[in-house]
Amino acid sequence: MRNIALLVFLSFSINAFGQKRAALEKPNVIIILTDDQGYADVGFNGSTEIPTPGIDRIATNGVVFTSGYVSYAVCGPSRAGLLTGRYQDKFGFSKNPLLAPKDPLMGLPLSEETMATVLKKAGYTTGAIGKWHLGAHPSLRPNKRGFDEFYGFLSGGHNYFPEELTIAKIEDSKTQYDGYRTKLLRNEQRVEETEYLTDAFSREAVHFIGRNHENPFFLYLAYNAPHAPMQATEKYLSRFPNIKDSKRRTYAAMVSAVDDGVGALLNKLEELQIAENTLVFFLSDNGGPTSANASDNTPLRGFKGDFFEGGVRVPFALQWKGIIPAGQTYDHPVISLDIFSTAVAISEVSPKNQLDGVNLVPFLTGENKGIPHQELYWRNYAANRFAIRTADSKQILETDKIFLFDIQKDISEKVNLAANQTNRVRELTKLIENWKMSLMDPVFMGLLEDKEYSKLHPDRYNKQ
Ligand code: CA
């Protein structure tokens, strides 16, 4: 009886509200990405030194992934994986791209569809705010890669104080790091920002939601905090009088600024009464580079750049109020690539390319009691280093070194079992060899080849 009543109600709803109702049934998707944040540096992973009440609301409203991974241990390739839902080495995005605004091959290859392109096909309005880092050539910029709206910068990092943004446009850069001082872009228009960068991105995110909430939207909010340079305003620094180390104090302040922004974004969803129709993902693009920004990856070994857990296991949480039960901790491994697969599953649209992630929703509602991934993989092309994570093992394979860890019991990767468990090493190595067959060589030169690239491309920068 109840089911019949529900059916009658549903068909009435669809008829009565027509197109708009149908559109509203597609949930909004928000990805909040931080940059170089340590595993330990969120309240939901136990931080007390840096309170993050805003970010923690996502965990309280939904789920904390204790084994949430990204597909690479530095910024660019990790973002390429996230926004395509595919292992980035499958399309040659193996390195951090160089700043090369004249090079149409320096960035995300046009063979790839971004999540924005795919969600647009499902009727979504799409916005990217913050750091791009997937190509500065006009053909590779956010507006050409599926985003209706863009507010941010194109390079791999950026200064935070608006008075330091003195380079009018990226084509005027003369060195790799000049990209850090360019003025921000609103779509293709240069703007004069007046706020601390993190506050500006939070403001833009809240405005984007306010403008677009009547139709399904996808918002990619990619803060560059707490990536270097270490810069924070007194408003945030004053919250941490007890942190003596000045770099750690600035880092805490930068995280705290992000946290205010996340809180404001969640408030906006509540105010508009769309929280129950919106998935909000929170994660960092890679592990903390502890010496560069004073981040903390405890209890994980290693840091940004590594395939030890400290490089690729990140703070990761998701809320979808009313659908995903609140207050969960989910321990099976998941990866940033799953975000794309989840988004296309719930928006019922088909991507052009084969995805490597899975729809997480059935695993979080309890409908699927299995594990999302049998294996997760990583490759560092330049170092000839590979890694694999299974339910219980983690192996890192280098030219002349092998590490094998019982990762369930040894989260800190202290005891290398490779010498004693040669059969297991052989099995995992075989899986890696098999996965390698699906990968391409890099399609562009990376950050570590800055000088070599400039030599090969003497016209890389415009002349004065
Ligand atoms: Ca990063």
Your description of this structure?
The chain is an alpha/beta fold and 464 residues long. The chain has two domains: 26-365, Alkaline Phosphatase, subunit A (3-Layer(aba) Sandwich), CATH 3.40.720.10; 376-441, Arylsulfatase, C-terminal domain (2-Layer Sandwich). 30% of the residues lie in helices and 15% in strands. The protein has 13 helices and 16 strands. The strands form three sheets. It has a ten-stranded mixed β-sheet, with helices on both faces. α2 crosses α7, α3 packs parallel to α10 and α5 (197-212) packs parallel to α7. The longest helix has 26 residues, at 246-271. The chain is globular and about 60 Å long. Residues 1-23 have low confidence and may be disordered. Bound molecules: calcium ion.
**Cα shape:** globular
Question: In which range does the helix fraction lie?
Answer: 25-40%
Ligand species: calcium ion
Poorly predicted ranges (pLDDT <50, ≥5 residues)? Answer: 1-23
Overall radius of gyration: 22 Å
Q: Would you list the SSEs in sequence order as H and E?
A: HEHEEHHEEEEHEHHEHHEEEHHEEEEHH
Tally of structural domains: 2
CATH architecture grouping of the largest domain: 3-Layer(aba) Sandwich
Q: Could you tell me how far the N terminus lies from the C terminus, measured between alpha carbons in angstroms?
A: 77 Å
Q: Name the CATH class of the largest domain.
A: Alpha Beta
Beta-strand content:
15-25%
Tell me the structural class.
alpha/beta
Number of helices: 13
Question: How is the biggest beta sheet arranged?
Answer: 10 strands, mixed
For the largest sheet, list the strands in their spatial order.
7-6-5-4-8-1-9-10-2-11
Q: Average pLDDT, to the nearest integer?
A: 94
The count of DSSP E runs of length 2 or more, i.e. the number of strands, is 16
Mind telling me the CATH superfamily name of the largest domain? Answer: Alkaline Phosphatase, subunit A
CATH topology of the largest domain: Alkaline Phosphatase, subunit A
